[in-house]
Design goal:
This is Formate acetyltransferase. It comes from Salmonella enteritidis. GO terms for molecular function: transferase activity. The chain is of the alpha+beta class. The protein folds into two domains: 48 residues, no CATH class; 48 residues, no CATH class. Helix 2 runs antiparallel to helix 3. The longest helix is centred in the first third of the chain and has 17 residues.
């Protein structure tokens, strides 16, 4: 679908595990992914590049993860400042690998 036809634009939230983007192959996959969405004329993509284990660690030791920023439904937030309920929801979201 041509996203320019959508009157209020579109937004895509994507979560990748860090391993997905490692090395030259990972960068190539990301470039291919972005090219595909450019061809679809997608207007806005937001990325989280973190794994669930890191987020669970941040729940246990928030003092060690004060700078960890995540995307939350259209805005960025420090993970450790979010409620436990929101943190758990972010952890449950699907992580995609290319």
């Amino acid at each position: 679908m041509d996203n320019t036809l959508l009157s209020n634009g579109t937004l895509l939230n994507v979560k990748f595990t860090p391993a997905t983007l490692e090395g030259e192959a990972g960068l190539r996959k990301l470039a291919d992914f972005l090219r595909a969405f450019t061809q679809l004329k997608l207007q806005h993509i937001q990325f989280n590049v973190v794994n669930a284990d890191t987020l669970r660690e941040a729940q246990l030791r928030p003092q060690d993860f004060a700078g960890l920023v995540v995307r939350v439904a259209g805005y960025s937030a420090f993970f450790v400042e979010l409620s436990k309920e929101i943190q758990d929801d972010i952890i449950r979201r699907t992580a995609h690998q290319l």
